[in-house]
Structures are given as structure tokens and as C-alpha cells.
Amino acid sequence: MHIAFIGVGNMGGPMARNLLKAGHKVTAFDLSAAVLAPVIAAGAGKASSANDAVQGADAVVTMLPAGEHIREVYLGNGILGVAKRGTLLIDSSTIDIGSARAVHAAAEQAGFDFVDAPVSGGVGGAEAGTLTFMCGGTEAAFERARPILEKMGKRVVLAGAAGAGQAAKICNNMLLAISMIGTCEAFVLAEKLGLDAQKLFDIASASSGQCWSLTTYCPVPGPVPTAPSNRDYGGGFASALMLKDLKLAQTAAQSAGAATPLGAEAAQLYSLFAAKGHGGLDFSGIIRMLRGEL
User: Fold this and answer.
1) Which residue in 8, 27, 230, 236 could disulfide with 12, CB within 3.0 to 4.6 Å?
2) Given pLDDT bands bounded at 50, 70 and 90, which one contains residue 122?
3) Model pTM greater than 0.90?
């Protein structure tokens, strides 16, 4: 297939390269020449704009920072006005549900299949092609998107109708942020009580405290060698991005009238962490603030 890829930064870049590895023709666009260069070097065609990229494409994948960017790229004089009839549209950005549903509605009115398909798995998952895609849209659009998404991930799930993918993503990441803070607090308390971190890990990982934040992404160096804690909290999933998702979750909670007190507290803690200048650190690095180091 000929696939247009709009937004080839930390996540979009490796995703686009995996589509190239799968044999697809990819035309890429990004406002940053620096992030576009590796994708072009891998074999993608270079577009001068988002609208230019979609010319003649069979499918479009977008990976952009926020809902305002998705609205700008698709609506008005954007993609919906220039894509050929029958082009499949996939947005893998993490954005507000309202924007996702607005683009869904506009795409449907214009006669396009559209899927909101945010991802979980971070940069490592994007590089390895092991991302999880949480999708919202019609069954027919999802089945069209599945073969493309499977070239970039190992799990592709239809969560429900328009916007359901975004809903699943923000619920998942709110839970992740809360569990990471709890895991960090447990290790900080263990340190204060003189309990060895490895001993706590060995016990909790085989007990009722077991969770992904502990066994896959342990916030202290040592127990899980692949965790960002072993790289001074570099790489991984930036705290600023976690904060973005927590804010989306809080906006959605307020709109839906849902009580999320721990989600609200997590948003406050990550906001403080980012305000101290540490938004670029992996989100597990918040343990350093809880220790009083930062």
C-alpha cells in the first residue's frame, strides 16, 4: 500500500520505518527536518506538507501532539479535502475525545473511514513493533486498519465506537500513573525502613502488590535491568507526556461527572515534577522527587 505518515517524531518515526520494513510505500511529512531525515534515509518519500503527503495515498497515519493539530491537519482545507476517495484515515495521536469525535464525524460526512488508534508501549515498543493499538470506529474501518496496525504493533483492539480508543488510552494511563506513584512510594518507604530494594522487589513481585510498574518498569535501578531507572531515567515515557495524558483524563472525568481523586492527585504530582524542570525524565523518575532529591 501507499501510506502517508504525518508526524514522524519519537513515536511516529519508528512506526513509519516499520511500515517500510513491511514493504509499504511511505510518504512522510513533519515540520521538523531533523526527525524527518531518518525516515527519508530509511526509504520514505519526502512531502512538502501534510496535504502533499496524502496525494494518491491508500491510507493516512497521523501521529501529532494534540487535538488542535489533528483538527488543523484534517479539517477545513486539510486532508479531508484533498485525499482521494476511499482513503483510510488512522490517527494514532493521544488527544482529547472531543477532537477525535469531531474528526470522526467530519470524515464520515465526507465519505471516509476513520479510526482513532492511540498507542501504548512507548518508544521501545514503537522501535520493536510491539505497540498496543486501542481503536475507536466502525467495525468495517477497524478491519481495514488492522493489517496496517499489525505491522507496527503486536496487539490491536477495537475498544468501541468513535473516540473509544482515546477513552481507553487515557483510562489506562491514568491507572499507570497512579500505580507508578504507589510503587515509588513503597520503595521510598522501604529505603527509610532499611529494607533492601531487591528484597522488596522479590517479595512484592510475587505477592499482591505485583503490577506492571513494579515488574516491568521498576523505578529503582537493579531489579529490572531494562527499566529506565537503570539509565538515570532517560528515554522511556517522558513525564511531560504522562502529565498531558493525566490532564486529558481529568478533562474527560469532569465532562463525564466521574470521581477520580487519585487521578487528580497524580496529575498534581506530575505537574509539580514537570514544573521543577524534569518533564523530560521518564515518568518513573518521580521517585526522585518523592525522596526529596529534586
Assistant:
1) 8
2) confident
3) yes
